[in-house]
Design a protein that fits this description.
This protein has 97 residues and is an all-alpha fold. It has a single domain, classed as Globin-like (Orthogonal Bundle). Helices cover 61% and strands 0% of the residues. The mean pLDDT is 87. InterPro entries: Globin (IPR000971), Globin-like_sf (IPR009050), Globin/Proto (IPR012292), Leghaemoglobin-like (IPR001032).
Length: 97
């Protein structure tokens, strides 16, 4: 089963909506992560020593933006190639803990 053009379009639309307010959406993104998996806090250098999700942290914003860009790029690869080729080989080692 492949990734359809309409599925890719949904991901792209989400990316466009996310970009409209990256600072707010980044905080919201990490707030949801920590609500679902509080133990994940230690995986993010910009969250480790904070009481909650910092509101104006450039590292948080940059990381969230990178994550959403990779999701968008992966959706495109899934539709065109049927698979995703990681552009950063260290991702598995960092995120599978």
């Amino acid at each position: 089963m492949g990734f359809t053009e309409s599925q890719e379009a949904l991901v792209n639309d989400s990316w466009e909506a996310f970009k409209e307010n990256i600072p707010h959406n980044s905080v919201l993104f990490y707030t949801f992560i920590l609500e679902k998996a509080p133990a994940a806090k230690g995986m993010f250098s910009f969250l480790k020593d904070s009481a909650g999700v910092p509101q104006d942290d450039p590292k948080l914003k940059a990381h969230a933006e990178k994550v959403f860009e990779m999701v968008r790029d992966s959706a495109s690869q899934l539709r065109t190639k049927g698979e995703v080729a990681l552009t950063n080989a260290t991702l598995g080692g960092v995120h599978v803990q």
